[in-house]
Write a structure and sequence with these properties.
With 549 residues, this protein is an alpha+beta fold. It is built from 15 helices and 24 strands. Strands 1, 2, 3, 4, 5, 6 and 7 form a 7-stranded mixed beta sheet that branches. The chain has a 5-stranded antiparallel beta sheet with strand order 12-11-24-23-22, with helices on both faces.
Length: 549
């Protein structure tokens, strides 16, 4: 018996697979349900299709039900892992109308950083009934691991194995009509001031001071004051609430929690040490949260001051070209200059002539002539404006101060060509261009979330998904910039993709320097007012910033 138990433990350990945000562990000794193999979220999927391997059903009479309880349970848990509530609902016998809402409400209350489900052996409780025990292991913010056991009841309905669902599947103590509720005790009196997401004071000379003052002046502090802990309670009808998990911090938070990450903010601030008139904005592509704003422009310059974005705007022009038939491997021309028919001539930086190249190479080398010609020949003012709008830009000057960018509809081919590489009427804030980079990484443009993490978010612009082929193409183009383009060999950490920009200010001063990019779930924009070239001024700052993380 002791050897058999040891063998079972070995089999359990060998059957563990963990997902990035939600994972499923399947263990089996006698009748294993399934094996799952998946890549953590945010990493490339493994080559080839993912598979679900089930042991063949045993021979059965013609009138026997379809499948087995193990197959139904495996499909149910696999859908749960993906938060695919529609697929889960299809496996449930007579699901309630608010089936998905009950799941979402549970997750909204739990706020779990990760979920891990261990599935045991299914047990037949009758000819047409079975139970599947499983354990949920949730990583709760600040409180650590929360572990509890549940059972999935199954039965044959219309010759098909179905899940007999009740709220007890979510937690064994939830009864019909009940649910999980998060409560926070009333805080005591105390001063409110902004702190980072983790509750730490901001780094000294962080460059975010003006934004924090503005945050407090707007009165966005939570009406209930500062949170001092929380509890998760089971709230069933007609019964007193029962606490199942609680957290009380050892040290009281000192103020209003922001979206800012302390380490990211500190890295951005130190990367600008000794640099005048510059800014770094970092956001989380998957959410739009602002992770850092280090501003040496004065006031709220990184969020409100608009500058010509130069060649960083080619990211948006490239999106329009990819949408209209080109691919990263399309052959294009990059001559030293391009004469717009019956109009002006466009030149490359330092009149560089690269001849016939791919679109990927033209983007990496920042060929003005390529993008001017392709825009004149393949696009028009409406298509360019529409593409810019999908990245948060507004048309014309009527919108006033914006947290993103603006451009006017080009009236002729000269204006269209200038706008294609971020000159002409195109203007953008550093925040705007950080959101452009974030959209490429995540495949969806998201508006920036206000800095106050706990304050009501109000009405934000709608997110805009990018076509998958366009997003993939843009990632290929931006990767080429750092591998063998204008940002190659400049000391950037491995895995960074981006786009340099050198923009004329239109007033005869020195050019502005830009570099936008992303690395994992962090996107950023570096801007140096009158700094010169993107490679010479902005890229080294980005390298210092990213290496400090």
């Amino acid at each position: 018996m002791r050897n058999r138990a040891l063998l079972a433990l070995v089999m359990v350990a060998a059957a563990i697979f963990v997902f990035g945000v939600a994972g499923l562990i399947v263990s089996g000794r006698q009748e294993p349900i399934a094996d799952f193999v998946a890549a953590p979220r945010g990493t490339p999927a493994p080559a080839g299709p993912q598979t679900l391997q089930l042991r063949p059903p045993e021979p059965s009479p013609v009138s026997s039900p379809e499948g087995s309880p193990g197959e139904t349970a495996a499909a149910y848990f696999q859908a749960w892992v993906k938060s695919d509530y529609d697929a889960m609902r299809d496996l449930v016998e007579d699901p309630p109308d608010d089936f998905a809402d009950q799941h979402r409400a549970f997750e909204d209350a739990a706020l779990s950083k990760s979920l891990r489900i261990t599935v045991g052996n299914f047990v037949r409780t009758g000819d047409e009934t079975a139970d599947v025990p499983f354990t949920q292991e949730r990583n709760e913010q600040e409180a650590g691991t929360w572990r509890f056991e549940s059972r999935l009841h199954l039965a044959v309905r219309d010759l098909t194995w179905k899940v007999l669902w009740t709220p007890a599947v979510l937690h064994p103590e939830i009864q019909p009509g009940g649910g999980l509720v998060r409560t926070e005790p009333e805080p005591g009196p105390g001063p409110l001031r902004p702190v980072t997401r983790g509750g730490r004071e901001f780094p000294q000379n962080s460059g975010a001071e003006a934004y924090l003052d503005n945050l407090m002046n707007q009165g966005v502090a939570p009406a209930t004051g500062v949170a001092v802990g929380w509890a998760l309670e089971i709230d069933n009808p007609g019964m007193p609430a029962k606490t199942v998990l609680s957290y009380k911090p050892e040290k009281r938070p000192v103020g209003v929690r922001t979206t800012i990450d302390y380490e990211v903010q500190a890295a951005a601030a130190r990367a600008l040490d000794g640099v005048q008139r510059a800014a770094i904005v970092a956001v989380r592509p998957s959410t739009g949260e602002v992770l850092a704003v280090a501003d040496r422009l004065g006031g709220l310059g990184a969020f409100e001051n608009k500058y010509p974005p130069g060649s960083t705007f080619k990211t948006i022009t490239a999106a329009a070209l990819l949408t209209n038939g080109l691919s990263p491997d399309s052959t294009v021309e990059c001559p030293a200059s391009y004469q717009i028919p019956f109009n002006r001539s466009i030149s490359n930086y330092q009149n560089e002539n690269h001849g016939a190249v791919t679109l990927r190479q033209a983007f990496a080398l920042s060929c003005n002539t390529t993008f001017a010609r392709l825009t004149v020949e393949r696009l028009n003012g409406d298509t360019l404006v529409d593409q810019a709008r999908a990245f948060g830009f507004v048309q014309g000057e009527s919108a006033g101060t914006s947290t993103c960018g603006s451009l006017q509809r080009p009236e002729n081919q000269d204006a269209l060509a200038e706008d294609s590489f971020g000159q002409g009427t195109v203007e953008a804030t550093p925040l705007c261009m950080a959101l452009v980079a974030a959209a490429v990484e995540s495949g969806e443009w998201r508006p920036a979330r206000p800095l106050a993490d706990e304050a009501p978010q109000g009405e934000l612009p709608q997110s805009v998904p990018l076509p998958s082929t366009v997003a993939e193409g843009l990632r290929s183009l931006m990767s080429a910039v750092t591998i063998d383009g204008t940002a190659a060999g400049a000391g950037l950490p491995q895995g960074v993709a981006g786009k340099t920009g050198t923009a004329e200010d239109g007033k005869g001063g020195q050019d502005h320097a830009w570099f936008i990019g992303y690395r994992g779930d962090l996107a950023f924009a570096v801007f140096v007012e009158h700094g010169g070239t993107g490679r010479g001024a902005a890229v080294p700052i980005a390298a210092r910033f990213l290496k400090a993380l």
